[in-house]
């Protein structure tokens, strides 16, 4: 179903179910750009809040990335609509120089950072975004094209830590099971206008190109609902795998892990683990001991392959993501790699 197909406007019972688990929180931040999805989120949240005798304070936040001349006007329109719905509204601006490469990723990071700031300022622990089932399907396709592993194909969860908040603030996606068409139908029925961001159809961006391909994929049976179903099933498998890794840690490296390591693993027990479990355990250890951020899956797979191939050798040593991985006898040790020193050649005259 595309937006043009119309869809059915959301009913009161459906609206209540979208937000039911959020009723006891004191403040909720609504991320509202002014596009159809986020405008619908604001409208639906306001309708839900009015049905409660007591409930959270709703604060709509618009992030102006400073990338389009229309952004200020759209933020002002969101503010007017928020006030008409009885909600507070704030506009935050992404200032400073913008990168020439990776602009969308940088804008997303800036948006989450500003939303986290808004949440902390308002005393909120939850930020609501308007990701839909269509967005979920596109995310699965994007990650497929990039050769993602199981974790990536699980795509977006309804509730997850807000990026950049170190787990202190949660990102909630109440509309993740809804098609965009139903949100547009709801706005039309309510007579609520919304903005149209041209970047959503800009062929320079991967998501926009995949969006134009979706109608052809749906004709072949690869509907957004099926892609979202795949994500739910993968997320279920992901939870089972992570549980298996927890058990493996208890058997292979039971001592408490500390940041920077060292983390000691039994080589024999590690070699007996199923490959996916061993790979994930190794990734956890490298992430804990190293200091260069998340471990890339392909590099982690290469490290595991090298470990396996060298099983008959006396000693093994590699570095990855700021961690040193050393095998000696029946002990595999992962610890912080020594700092790299840059040699500066002196000029001789």
Question: What does it look like?
Answer:
With 349 residues, the protein is an alpha/beta fold. It folds into two domains: 229 residues, Rossmann fold (3-Layer(aba) Sandwich); 84 residues, Uridine Diphospho-n-acetylenolpyruvylglucosamine Reductase, domain 3, CATH 3.30.465. Helix content is 46%, strand content 14%. The protein is built from twelve helices and ten strands. The strands form two sheets. Strands 3-2-1-4-6-5 form a six-stranded mixed β-sheet, sandwiched between helices. Strands 7-10-9-8 form a four-stranded antiparallel β-sheet. Helix 5 packs across helix 9 and helix 11 crosses helix 12. The longest helix has 29 residues. The N terminus and C terminus are likely disordered.
Helix and strand layout, with pairings?
Elements: H1 12-19, E1 27-31, H2 36-50, E2 57-64, H3 71-84, E3 88-93, H4 103-122, E4 126-128, H5 133-145, H6 150-153, E5 159-161, E6 170-172, H7 180-190, H8 206-219, H9 224-252, E7 263-266, H10 267-271, H11 275-289, H12 297-309, E8 315-320, E9 323-328, E10 331-336
Parallel strand pairs: 1-2, 1-4, 2-3, 4-6
Antiparallel strand pairs: 5-6, 7-10, 8-9, 9-10
Helix pairs in contact: 1-2, 2-7, 5-8, 5-9, 9-11, 11-12
């Amino acid at each position: 179903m595309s937006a043009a197909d119309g869809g059915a406007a959301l009913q009161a019972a459906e609206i209540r179910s979208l937000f039911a688990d959020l009723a006891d929180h004191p403040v909720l931040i609504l991320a509202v750009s002014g596009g159809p999805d986020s405008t619908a989120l604001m409208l639906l949240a306001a309708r839900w809040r009015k049905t409660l005798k007591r409930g959270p304070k709703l604060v709509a936040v618009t992030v102006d990335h400073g990338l389009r001349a229309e952004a200020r006007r759209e933020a002002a329109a969101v503010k007017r609509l928020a006030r008409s719905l009885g909600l507070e509204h704030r506009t935050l601006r992404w200032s400073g120089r913008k990168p020439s490469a990776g602009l969308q990723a940088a804008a997303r990071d800036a948006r989450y950072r500003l939303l986290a700031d808004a949440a902390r300022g308002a005393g909120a622990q939850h930020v609501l975004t308007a990701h839909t089932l269509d967005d979920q399907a596109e995310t699965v396709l994007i990650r497929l094209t990039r050769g993602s592993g199981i974790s990536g194909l699980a795509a977006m969860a309804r509730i997850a830590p807000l990026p950049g908040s170190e787990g202190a603030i949660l990102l909630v996606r109440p509309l993740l099971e809804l098609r965009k068409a139903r949100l547009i139908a709801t706005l039309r029925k309510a007579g609520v206008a919304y903005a149209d961001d041209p970047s959503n159809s800009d062929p320079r961006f991967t998501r926009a190109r995949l969006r134009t391909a979706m109608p052809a994929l749906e004709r072949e049976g690869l509907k957004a609902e099926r892609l979202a179903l795949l994500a739910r099933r993968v997320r279920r498998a992901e939870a089972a795998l992570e549980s298996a890794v927890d058990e493996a840690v208890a058997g292979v490296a039971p001592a408490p892990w500390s940041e920077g390591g060292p983390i000691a693993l039994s080589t024999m027990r590690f070699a007996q683990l199923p490959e996916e479990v061993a790979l994930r355990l190794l990734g956890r250890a490298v992430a804990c001991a190293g200091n260069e951020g998340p471990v890339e899956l392909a590099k982690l797979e290469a490290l595991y392959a090298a470990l396996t191939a060298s099983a008959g050798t006396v000693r093994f040593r590699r570095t990855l993501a700021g961690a040193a991985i050393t095998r000696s006898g029946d002990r595999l040790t992962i610890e912080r790699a020594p700092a790299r020193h840059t040699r500066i050649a002196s000029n001789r005259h």
